[in-house]
Write a structure and sequence with these properties.
Elements lengths: L12 E2 L10 E5 L29 H7 L2 H17 L4 E3 L22 H17 L3 E7 L12 E3 L2 H8 L1 H8 L5 E4 L3 E2 L2 E2 L4 H11 L5 E3 L8 H6 L28 H8 L5 H17 L14 H14 L1 E5 L21 E5 L24 H14 L12 E5 L17 H15 L4 E7 L22 H11 L3 E6 L14 E4 L7 H9 L36 E3 L8 H7 L16 E3 L3 E3 L2 E8 L5 E11 L10 E10 L4 E7 L2 H4 L1 E2 L6 E2 L3 E8 L8 E6 L2
Helix pairs in contact: 1-10, 2-3, 2-10, 3-5, 10-14, 11-14, 12-13
Length: 701
């Protein structure tokens, strides 16, 4: 019975103990929504008619809100759908670090900064687990690329491991008390992370005193002895490739099934090892499947759609907003005034493509999805009905659509061959229609095809695929009044940026995608999202790229994080490389004035004033850097943030508290956390590149 509860009994369940009335654990993929029901022992859909759900925005979108309250709402809402479907464990959220913009799975994570990822994941977990649904935090640890994900050995310094890659996991353990954690496929020091003794027993269960259960990624277990002694508690998906390949083995053939039982019976592994695993699994069962306070939940409620839309609206990032051509005033092109235009052309596959499909394990079966084209058409229809009746010839706003390019169907494990002639035909159609438009809204970017934003494959180029760069440039030459909207989980090159009037980045917005986007484009919602990653001008500007293939390559079984702690904006600051858009950056339809930061004791305060004409939300960010450090340290690092709502003309005071933990670093010399006394430079601003508002804080003995 103990052996049975520590490994799978189906694709997404592990056994209970029927003799004692102990229930099984029902798991399912998340964290953006509950995956459709699969057959008991295959990857085939069960074809239920009542398993359609709300697709919530991607976690990069959630991170872009910089809003802890929305993270709490997200965790509560999505866990209600898991509870209603009878699920006990939600496989997510994820907090792996975006060290490369090529990572095909980055859209499931929360950006490049460990503080932001940790701060945003804590309320998510707390809210979800309050409903009796366990979060299974992914992927512990160093799973930062999909290329060769099953076998790559990650070489990283102890300092970078502690300061960057383990940091958000630690906050989830110590502050949110997450109930389960998923091991990762990759190796660390030559041992797979799903059963890595140093990481799991040494740090997670030892140093951090964590009492939860480690669940393997599907197919992530590779050895009985290591699984038994390396800290793994529940083995899932062995003898598959994690997604599509079937197995000829039975569940009793799993590494932690008959093979482990045999080692125990032979006295080679003590019963105490099995007891410890079974005890942790029982604790997880009692917290979830047998929790008398577990929520009943609900599915596809209007409250969940409202939550989806609110998160999407605050996660959208406005990156560029210039004056429209032929405008006499200095008013930027956004928000759109639909009365100014007679013929609006929407171009781009993502205007109609479902971006809830594809992506691997994050694929979702939705009850309803509102596309950008649908939402824009609804707005224009509403606008036209306000005109005097009958509508005269040529009055009103006309909306037309051209796909512009094709990327093939939603895929996971293969690439559709797209006929180049078809893409040329679609491009020609879009260009011809552009000659008749006085405004173009281009809606493209990435999608969830393999080698785009998808599990088990990384992007192959920093550019947008499918000829989009050329298409955008040609459209802008025909009609300069062009607004570019992109979806996707990663940064990308923008060689056409100076040709377009506005750039809006949306990540993946879920079921309310179109409505959220339309509300932002037309000013019903003032954009307030800010980037959780750095957008570089060139791919070569990312900190790891300078170290060549050793730091990131496609075919090697070894990767070395040679940029060390200088991930993302830390590396851009060190190298004095100007990014295209810095970490923490995002524009608004209003403007904010920062006062002078004032330090008093262990607090720093600053006044923020809305100097524009509309209400808006500003994300005030605190970065700290040590002056004259004893060991090498970044120029500055994010240590706190606040998101505040300001009415026109309103001023609010934002206060941050500085504690010793926020000043600590992991010493390469002493191999422990250390806090230096002396002077620290405080930067309070609107992004990682904002150095205008500084103060000095001194830490004494």
């Amino acid at each position: 019975e103990k052996i049975q509860v520590i490994h799978a009994q189906s694709k997404f369940t592990s056994a209970g103990v029927p003799r004692l009335g102990i229930r099984q654990l029902n798991m399912d993929d998340g964290p953006h929504g509950v995956r459709e029901e699969l057959e008991w022992n295959t990857w085939n859909p069960a074809r239920w008619t009542n398993d359609s759900i709300v697709a919530f925005p991607s976690l990069t979108c959630l991170a872009s809100t910089w809003n802890r309250d929305l993270s709490r709402l997200y965790g509560h809402s999505v866990s209600e759908e898991f509870a209603f479907r009878g699920k006990d464990v939600m496989l997510g959220p994820g907090v792996n670090i975006a060290r490369t913009p090529m990572n095909g799975r980055a859209f499931e994570y929360m950006g490049e900064d460990p503080y932001l990822a940790g701060a945003m994941v804590v309320p998510y977990i707390q809210a979800a687990q309050k409903n009796g649904v366990a979060c299974c935090l992914k992927h512990f640890v160093l799973n930062d690329q999909e290329t060769n994900r099953f076998g790559v050995n990650v070489n990283v310094s102890e300092r970078a491991l502690r300061e960057i890659y383990l940091a958000p996991f630690r906050r989830a353990v110590e502050e949110a008390h997450v109930w389960s954690i998923m091991g990762s496929y990759n190796m660390y020091k030559g041992v797979h992370c799903c059963h890595n003794d140093e990481l799991i027993n040494g740090i997670l269960k030892g140093e951090w005193q964590w009492d939860g259960s480690v669940i393997s990624d599907w197919g992530g277990t590779t050895d009985t002895w290591q699984a038994a002694t390396g800290g793994l508690d529940i083995e899932m998906g062995s003898f598959t490739d994690g997604k599509v390949k079937e197995s000829e083995f039975t569940y009793d053939d799993y590494y932690m099934a008959r093979p482990l039982e045999q080692l125990i019976n032979e006295g080679k592994i003590p019963m105490s090892v099995l007891d410890e695993k079974a005890g942790r699994v029982l604790r997880l069962i009692f917290r979830t499947a047998m929790n008398p306070k577990k929520a009943i939940g609900n599915q596809c409620s209007e409250a969940h759609y409202d939550a989806c839309r609110a998160i999407a609206e605050e996660g959208i990032v406005l990156l560029r907003n210039e004056k429209a051509k032929n405008e006499k005033s200095a008013t930027p092109i956004l928000p759109l005034d639909l009365t100014k235009y007679k013929h609006i052309l929407v171009v781009g596959e993502n205007a109609t493509r479902s971006l809830t499909q594809g992506g691997g394990s994050s694929e979702l079966k939705t009850l309803r999805d509102i596309s950008p084209l649908e939402a824009l058409q609804d707005l224009i229809n509403q606008q036209n009905t306000l005109l005097p009746s009958p509508i005269g010839e040529g009055s009103g706003v006309r909306l037309s659509f051209a796909q512009g390019y094709t990327s093939g169907r939603a895929l996971y494990d293969q690439v559709d061959t797209v006929d180049p002639a078809e893409n040329e035909r679609l491009k020609a159609e879009a260009i011809e229609k552009a000659t008749k438009a006085d405004l173009i809204i281009y809606i493209g970017g990435l999608n969830k095809n393999t080698k785009q934003d998808c599990e088990n494959g990384d992007r192959e180029s920093y550019d947008l695929s499918f000829g989009q760069n050329e298409l955008i440039s040609q459209l802008a030459q025909i009609q300069p009044n062009i607004v570019v909207v992109t979806f996707g989980g990663n940064a990308y090159a923008t060689p056409w940026l100076q040709q377009v009037k506005a750039l809006v980045h949306c990540w993946y917005l879920g079921s309310e995608s179109g409505t959220a986007l339309a509300n932002v484009l037309t000013g019903k919602v003032c954009p307030s999202g800010k980037l959780p990653v750095t957008f570089a001008k060139r791919y070569e500007d990312y900190p790891y790229v300078r170290y060549g293939e050793e730091a990131y390559q496609s075919n090697s079984s070894e990767v070395t994080y040679k940029e060390d702690i200088y991930v993302g904006y830390r590396g851009f600051n060190r190298d004095k490389t100007q990014p295209l858009f810095p970490f923490g950056y995002g524009l608004s339809y209003t403007t904010f004035k920062y006062g002078k930061p004032a330090v008093s004791g262990n607090t720093v305060s600053i006044d923020i004033t809305n100097t524009g004409a509309v209400a808006g939300k500003e994300i005030v960010q605190l970065y700290i850097g040590k002056e004259k450090p004893q060991e090498d340290r970044p120029v500055k690092e994010l240590k706190d943030f606040r998101k505040i709502l300001l009415q026109p003309g309103e001023t609010k005071t934002v206060t941050f508290t500085i504690d010793r933990n926020s000043l600590a670093y992991f010493s390469n010399v002493s191999h422990q956390w250390k806090t230096e006394t002396g002077r620290y430079r405080l930067y309070v601003g609107s992004s990682s590149a904002d150095n205008a508002h500084q103060a000095v804080y001194t830490l004494s003995e």
